[in-house]
Design goal:
Layout lengths: L1 H18 L1 H6 L14 H20 L3 H19 L9 H16 L9 H18 L4 H6 L5 H26 L8 H22 L3 H22 L2
Amino acid sequence: MALAVLTGQLTVGWSNDFIDRDRDRLAERTDKPIPAGLIPAPVVRNSAVVAAAACAPLSLLSGWRAAAVHLVAVGAALCYNTWLKRTVFSVVPYIVAFALLPAFVTLGAARHRWPPTWTMLAAALLGAGAHFLNTLPDLAADARTGVRGLSHRCGPTGSVLIGGTLLGAALATVAAAPDESLDAAAVCLVVAGSVAVGGVIATALVGRARLAWNLALAAAGLTVALYLVRGV
């Protein structure tokens, strides 16, 4: 399961770098290996193809139900790379892919069950929040190269507020899950997650987009940790 997710992520990441190589050059993205001249574009393309070829059989090791769900999630991410990132529907692949990840886990278990609805909802909220915050550092460069996704149309301030709210909603969804009351560890995680979400909004509004993204990752990690601690 871990290897299937890893190869799926490599497929998405490497294909994104290959597809956006010309845009990255125009935007002078020296942090990207292709425009920086560190790796030839065909090597990245071939690596993405190999990763995709490995993702399918690795996913099937968890059974056809889980494999179907995981491959739909990876396919949604590839649709974002190739087309949807430029449209008002750019958030949809994030919602779909994140929501299906817990289903990949539970459908691959012995009873092949779908996860509780609130679990998929929390994951979808995390994904949607990630979309609005992930694009913040690149809004100016994207505008120069013709990318106009939903977050671009909302603008920097709107994206910050929407993204932060969605991350907070994901944390609240897990905290309010139908289970026994929160223990001390869970309360600490809720507080830490809330501080991280507040930090996301505060740092993004003062122009620290990279720090805001790092805090968004922390908020997502704390939400997942809360889910695991609760044992639901």
